[in-house]
Amino acid sequence: MWKWFCLMISSETGKKKMSALVLAAIGVVYGDIGTSPLYALKECFSAEHGVPMTPGSVFGVLSLLFWAIFIVVSLKYLIFILRADNKGEGGILALMALALRGVDRERSRWWIAGFGMFGAAMFYGDGMITPAISVLSAVEGLAIATPWFSNYILPITVAIICALFFFQKHGTAAIGKLFGPITCVWFAILAILGIHHIVQAPEILAAVNPYYGFHFALEHRWQAFIVLGSVFLAVTGTEALYADMGHFGSRAIRLAWFWFVMPALLLNYFGQGALILNSPESISNPFYLMAPSWGVLPLVLLATCATVIASQAVITGAFSLTRQAILMGYCPRMKIVHTSEQEIGQIYIPAINWLLLISVICLVLVFRSSDNLAAAYGIAVTTTMIITTVLAGIVMRRLWKWHAASVAVVVLMFLAVDLVFFSANAIKIAEGGWFPILIGIGAFIVLSTWKLGRTILYHHLSRQSVPVDSFMESVELMQPRHVNGTAVFMTSSANGIPLALLHNLKHNKALHERNVFLTISFADIPFVPEMERLRLDNLGRGFWRIEVMYGFKEIPDIQEIFSLCDKSHDMAFNMMETSFFLTHETLVTSKTPYMATWRKRLFAFLSKNAVRPTDFFRIPTSRVVELGAAVEL
Fold this sequence. Notes:
Blueprint: H1 2-28, H2 31-34, H3 40-44, H4 55-80, H5 92-101, H6 106-139, H7 142-145, H8 153-166, H9 173-200, H10 210-220, H11 222-231, H12 239-243, H13 245-248, H14 250-278, H15 286-289, H16 296-327, E1 337-338, E2 347-348, H17 350-367, H18 370-374, H19 379-398, H20 404-426, H21 429-464, H22 468-478, E3 481-490, H23 499-508, E4 510-522, E5 534-540, E6 543-550, H24 558-569, E7 578-588, H25 597-609, H26 613-616, E8 624-632
Parallel strand pairs: 3-4, 3-7, 4-6, 7-8
Antiparallel strand pairs: 1-2, 5-6
Helix pairs in contact: 1-9, 1-14, 4-10, 4-11, 4-14, 5-6, 5-19, 6-8, 6-16, 6-17, 6-19, 6-21, 8-17, 9-14, 9-16, 10-11, 11-20, 19-20, 21-25
């Protein structure tokens, strides 16, 4: 009886916890894809596409839209891609780290890393367009409520976007709890509006038959191909399902989609189709025209809240992606502010925040309407989806040990769909698709230049390092004077003697009574267990080597490292008697063939403007000694 009671209590607790996760997932994960009904179907029937407004076209477009959602979201991401978790974490960089585990050849590893970096770079283009098109499409509903607002749509949009980005530094802990309930109300309203119009034209449900999609494609051909670029707008935001897996877990994300989000979205899309069948003129803005006249203004307010939440999810994703890139060595160090003492995932990166704000405002002012912005949307997302498919195929074959034929069938099936959508969006490059491509290429150049530069610098400094045995012999011959206290020499290499120690010994002719070589590195997993975090070796004669490993979702802290040394190895540190020696590298461009000259200059610029190691690793600045060293690139 007692065991049964305990199992019942634990089961109830588990259900409550899962319900909370599902609610939170609805608020964060599905914010982006949940606002697509504002503009997706309307864009499919844009006058520029030349698709006639006939019942056959409405059925055909809805059929394409339904199967796009089923194949891309439900089948590809929810069933297959979510299985590729890196210790519970998802996202393009986490997937890249998984793919790299199964590959030993250096050339292949660079290709995979390049794919991952480019996919991450394209995410920034998507992150700039999502707030612009989402908020703008919501505010455009004011013109339907009353024409008086027509001239104020852009100022109101810019004001909302500015408020959203200025609020980032305060964190989302306070309002984050409202995201789930508000988004649930949003999806409920989507479903109710859809059901109301489906009842008036129930024949629209026949559009689930793929025949209508094939018939539409065969009948209209080129126009149908162009329409696919707009159909894809219904699945933008799908990458968030995978990227946010570490926050909520795959089960909560799947439950939220299949039991609530997908039914609500499909009901609304089919409701819009039913409205267009009965009133073809409503294609001007079918979403808002679904509501009665008295409900348009409240719907605009609710839509604005939903789009702000969707934008918040993308901004948070950009912060998380940047942190991962920094810790994995693909991005220069930046200032990272933790906005919550309880949640490690709630961070704020000022440089990324202000860059996104400026870009989003420029997008709104240049494109001026959601119709124009729709042309710029999609190319970045489809590129990331293609890369995700390729990397997932490597994981299936190398890590999961799937049969080559099974991998080929799955990858080719999804890749075919991805490439069709990519091609349909590629024809819109001249109309605005150039923007995310430009942003993605720029971000890729920065990421790849930093990674290559740091690799070259690491090998260069490793060649200059002195072996431990040789150094010990020279110290014994030199017999420098010893001073009290501890000297910690930060070094990126776990082999040889740090350059900072050699410079200190050369100039000061002295050694501390205890000398520690500290190397902090990052694994390709999100979190490293505390028992595996630190390794300490006694090199003899007062020299110690400490190697510390963090995951790509953890921020190193020198105080935590010292506490762990004391706890696990009984090696205490007194901060007031400890000095930190760092090598300040002055990069000098040379004619070495390792990097192009412009890349060397870019790398030198990035290094100069990167956050100082003392700030990044939280080292007290009053205890730091920097020793300069010129390094040729």
